[in-house]
């Protein structure tokens, strides 16, 4: 675990009560900031367009798939249908196109020196061997330095655009902020805890102060700081590492560490060790391991980069709502033509324009991409049902040939028959769906919810009892399996012990 990781881990537990806003997590911009996630199980061709045109320009399939894959990798699919995922992808891809146009229109760009500094910082100063560089290229889903440069150029163009908007909206950066963003401080500490968040049975304030003074005197008399930290510190995440908290910029530390802790740090020089400092977590003995001062040629060189990053942070924190409104307004002004019939149909469905949605879904089902897509069939049937075109809804569901007895198909048909006031057929279908679901409790509970919504109380009560019985059976089976596993492990351990005894003899 690196020093920096230790700092972040510690922050969750004790020193960092301030929530740091993650700049890149705004949705749009996320997909330039991070790798393409090309090496995971969700990679590959996920979608074949065209999806839509934005101001006359088609969204590229590669861009659609890049965003699609990122969403899947982030677990978005776990709470969303495939239609919802694609709709969200379309939203992000549209915003991406609009921002690219804005960047081009306003001639927002980076110079080659800025790009080179960024590439060195992110890759070439960190990875030296051919093997390490190849690993970095794989991570960013590029083949060579030229492709990496193109990728990072887009990333920096985004950041420069945010900085551009920040300046436009009156945000500024002071010299002090630039220094804090540049200056790096390496820290270590010894904590004698008074807070139960840190230690289960913390000392009283008086006892902690006395123990901290004792530790401080040992350090002051020449005992190695790391040795004293291992003996006295209650910070389980740093004590075994000699109290090290890693290194970070003064800006990040000021934003993250508790006020009293940082008030001491800012006054200290490299190599200096503080007397016990009281915070809400106890008494800290702080050591400034290293400190990079904000001066010289290098500082002057990176000032522009620092200003950009500070302005970006300010925009996405202080002006976040204004930025989101601006982006929405830019989207509204754009001419957006959704080409994909399924994507267009889903948008109409969201707007509850049922007749238009039904027609769009009907067209989508003629598209070879969606002929076997269950969700499109279900959405088409729902749209026809809501448009009071019940026979067409049933006809759509009958066309699904992959598995006509699919539980979701049966539930959809039940919904249609209920809308037609054919309660018997609706009930029979739901009862049959429950049988087809077997011991799949997720499906059975979905059927139960629909039964309750349609007020089929008798059928719902029976299914609820069945679910309880299955649940009990599953739990009993799990207990038995756990018992058998424990017995197996016990026997294995006994066998190993017997073998060791025999060998010793």
Which architecture of the domain at 352-473 would the CATH scheme give at its second level?
Alpha Horseshoe
Strand and helix order: HHEEHHHHHHEHHEHHEEHHEHHHHHHHH
Mean pLDDT: 87
C-alpha geometry: extended
The low-pLDDT segments are 1-44
Distance between the termini: 43 Å
SS class: alpha+beta
Question: Whole-number radius of gyration?
Answer: 31 Å
Biggest β-sheet: strands ordered side by side in the sheet: 4-3-6-5
Strand content: 5-15%
Strand tally: 7
What is the name of the CATH topology of the domain at 352-473? Serine Threonine Protein Phosphatase 5, Tetratricopeptide repeat
Give the number of helices: 22
CATH class of the domain at 352-473: Mainly Alpha
Tell me the CATH superfamily of the domain at 352-473. Answer: Tetratricopeptide repeat domain
Helix content percent band: 55-70%
Could you describe the largest sheet, including whether it forms a barrel? 4 strands, antiparallel
